[in-house]
Amino acid sequence: MENNLNNDELKQKNLVLFLKDFNLTVGEQVLFNKFSLDVFDGEIIGFFAPTGSGKTSLFNHIAGTMLDPKSAVVEPVETTISYVFQEPRLIPSLTVLKNVMLPLENKMKENDAKDLAIQWLEKLNMGHKINDLAKTLSGGEQQRTSIARAFAYTCAVPERVEGGAGIQGLLLLDEPFASQDEINTTNIVNLIKQIVSSQHCACLVISHDSQVLESFCSRIITSQDFLN
Fold this sequence. Notes:
7 helices; 228 residues
């Protein structure tokens, strides 16, 4: 998982994430021991491991590390992080549309944010729910709204250009297929592939469905890989 390229070579290959020697112990159980991971533009990496193995803790660490430039091992390009948590984190009293628009409004004009939010809600089969309050949604609908918000945010960076210049993106998806039927699962998989290939970003995705992960991930990491 770790390579021996120097800093310049890593940046030329469009490195999105450089994680080195992550350790995690809960009680007396060692979950991660010097776990290292390099992730490059265009990669989709699946995480398949039992409940309680530390996958979500790893994602939280990655998000926190990348948001703190002082912790970077390689001189970083600017990175946009979009995180879909295992439990949808929506504002219950706001509409579906407003929940997706909120993070976009810091990046673009309100009308543009609205257009982009609607576009992604429609792609996630949530177009008919845009004016509903988030608290009225089913669990699957809440998760698709969260995914729409993350995908829209990733696409709200027009400066991202081919060749490593500009802003790169990382999608962290924790159980995005939870409470989804086969049609919506297939749709989400196709949208992940589409956004990774078109937006110069990478995606890390946790799922308990190994068959789904095998259908679209470039590599899959298991709990055996967590221990050096």
